[in-house]
Amino acid sequence: MRKDKILVIGANGQIGSVLTQALRRSFGEDNVVASDIRDSENHPGLFETINVLDAQRIAEVVDRYHITQVYHLAAILSAKGEANPLKTWDINMSGLFNVLEVAREKRMAKVFFPSSIAVFGNDVPRYGTPQNAHLSPSTVYGMSKVAGELWSQYYFQRYGLDVRSVRYPGVVGYQSDPGGGTTDYAVEIYHYAVQEKPYQCFLKNNTPLPMIYMDDAIRGTLELMDASSDKVSVRTSYNLAGMSFTPEEITNSIRSFYPDFKVLYQPDFRQQIADSWPASIEDSQARQDWNWQPKYDLDAMTADMILHLKEKYAVSSLT
Ligand code: SER
């Protein structure tokens, strides 16, 4: 077990909840403090309520547990963010500034800041979008991630703070529910399939998006955070690819388990957001710098999702 003391902010979220468990396995139960604005029933271990807008509260928790690393996952995502642009900007940016400042003042060893495929806009190559493509996002969430990437790099260059980041594709997992994102359909669709209900998809059938299976996303995050500092050549954020598929392709993959599964397409405002994002991204820099390699393709993901969700619904029907 290692000496670091870790604080996860946003630990009740889709990625935060799974990441917290993975960090506890690797660093020890007593060395990982989960925190979120909402109280948690899911975290039997150390938990503190933190509102990211409250810098003093972050500092207090950091002092109390002698925190050396922060994973800052709290943010308002792409679709939900459009309902209240200024509030989204405030939460996403002030939250990050509070974390970066506390980390700088307390001379923390490392900070993780998640970025997203939402940093890209309409004017990039849609397939195989490169690491250094022009960033002109159309959502306030994407704008906050571009600014966040630049501030992360600034804190590294100016203060030597070791901030690391990946641009997550849509993350798909059975362990937790997403909230407020444009890629959320790719999780919901499995829940409907396993319950043998038809699914109404909010994107068009032929909309390709970059996605990644949760196991790969978590492993990639931990591998980046574990890499020796001289290997981390990108201090804004690394493109991280898993797979790419359309709603129709995921439906076909699910139909090899549930041949009668029905999907209705009812695109809403999220279609426009999806249309502004890449169809797939190119991640050779992550592969080269810290040996990134995804393990799951669409069919492997489908098999694993269905296996675990069937267990989950079987258990919940018994209780
Ligand atoms: N999954 C996120 C969203 O859809 C992308 O980062 O907003």
The CATH superfamily of the largest domain bears the name NAD(P)-binding Rossmann-like Domain
Report the strand count: 14
Large-scale geometry: globular
Order of helices and strands: EHEEHEHHEEHEEEHEEHEEHEHHH
CATH fold title of the largest domain: Rossmann fold
Overall description:
By secondary structure, the chain is an alpha/beta fold. It has two domains: 6-170 and 212-239, NAD(P)-binding Rossmann-like Domain (Rossmann fold), CATH 3.40.50; 173-210 and 242-277 and 296-318, Alpha-Beta Complex (UDP-galactose 4-epimerase, domain 1), CATH 3.90.25. 43% of the residues lie in helices and 14% in strands. The protein has helices at residues 14-27, 55-65, 78-81, 85-105, 140-159, 185-194, 214-226, 247-255, 270-275, 284-290, 298-318, and strands spanning 6-9, 32-36, 47-49, 69-72, 110-112, 115-116, 163-164, 166-168, 170-172, 199-201, 209-213, 238-239, 243-245, 263-265. The strands form four sheets. The chain has a six-stranded parallel beta sheet with strand order 3-2-1-4-5-7, sandwiched between helices. It has a three-stranded parallel beta sheet with strand order 6-8-12. Helix 2 runs parallel beside helix 4, helix 4 (85-105) packs parallel to helix 5 (140-159) and helix 6 (185-194) packs across helix 11 (298-318). The longest helix has 21 residues, at 85-105. It starts with 5 loop residues before the first strand and ends with a helix. The model has no long low-confidence stretch (mean pLDDT 97). The structure holds serine (SER). Residues 77-78, 116-118, 141, 168, 170, 181-183 line the site of serine.
